[in-house]
Amino acid sequence: MRTLYDDLAYNKILTEIWELVDATNQYIVKTAPWTLAKTNEGKERLKTVMYNSAESLRTIAILIYPFMPQSAESMIRQLGIDTPIEEQGMESIAKWGGLKSGSRIQSGSQLFPRIEDKEAAKILQDVQSSGESEKPQTASAKKEEISTEQVTIDEFMKIDLRTGKILEAEKVKKSKKLIKLKVDIGSETRQVLAGIAEAYEPDQLIGRTIVLVANLKPAKLMGIESQGMILAGSADGKIILAGFDNDLPQGVRVR
Q1: In this predicted structure, what is the pLDDT of residue 134?
Q2: What is residue 93's three-state secondary structure?
Q3: Are 160 and 255 in contact (CB under 8 A)?
Q4: Which among 8, 39, 196, 202 is most buried, taking Cβ atoms within 10 Å?
């Protein structure tokens, strides 16, 4: 991350941070502290699990501070840390175990509310502007609708469409529609969420060349950041990814 800061590669920095967030979440799920608390033997293990979780949150708070200062400061306060976050810096997370024993956790509001599956699907649908109208339209009505949404060539050119190659694909837990992708767009690798799980299996996607909206503002779905949008069409409920007749290298501008 220090190297990425030197390169001003902020998008890649956020990708690295969210890998730690995901790993922390998986650690909590796998160790199941709510189950450990039910037995005396489990309670001994619970002490370590809770400390590791809190220490990881402290690390995450410091890492996200340049991007989400208010949320980071709230996390530090809730962890019972008195030292202002700007005085801690990267050096404080160089070694594991910076959270002092005996620190009293402070109660507070939920900083990042969970987005449920139905809400996540709706957000994704709104972002992608996909789906068909509930009522059939006449040809003249469709023509009128298109004419009211016309854009100039300058406005269209603001959209940065790039070719990308899917390197990794996995279904998002607790979601029927979302697949998390790692997409190589030449200059960098993006993490992208796509609502295509009902149309494609993850192994069908790896190695596929797609079209990505590369300059779309990142959005969070079910706590996972999506750094772009994959183009696809939908007909009769069937989703088909946009593609090409011949192979193109990653990062080519689509016009």
Answers
A1: 46
A2: helix
A3: no
A4: 196
CB 226 within 8 A of CB 192: yes
- Give the whole-angstrom CA distance, residue 173 versus residue 180: 10
pLDDT tens profile 119-165: 777 777 776 655 544 445 555 445 445 545 677 888 888 889 999 99
Contact 81, 103 (CB under 8 A): yes
Distance between CA atoms of residues 71 and 172, nearest Å = 25
Decide if 120 contacts 178 (C-beta within 8 A).
yes
pLDDT at 171: 92
Task: Determine the CATH number of domain 117-241.
Answer: 2.40.50.140
Report the share of the chain in percent with pLDDT over 90.
35
Find residue 225's DSSP bridge partners: 220
The span from the CA of 80 to the CA of 96, in Å, is 17
How many helices (H) and strands (E) are present in the chain, helices listed first? 9, 9
C-alpha closest to that of 65 among 102, 90, 95, 32:
90
Q: Which residues contact 43 (CB under 8 A, 6 or more apart)?
A: 36, 37
Domains 2-93 and 117-241 are alike in CATH topology: no
Q: Are strands 224-226 and 219-221 parallel, antiparallel or unpaired?
A: antiparallel
The 3-state DSSP class for residue 234 equals: strand
* CB-CB contact of 96 with 51 (8 Å): no
Domain 2-93 has CATH 1.10.10.10: no
Would the pTM of this model clear 0.70, i.e. be above it? no
Task: Parse the chain into domains and list their residue ranges.
Answer: 2-93, 117-241
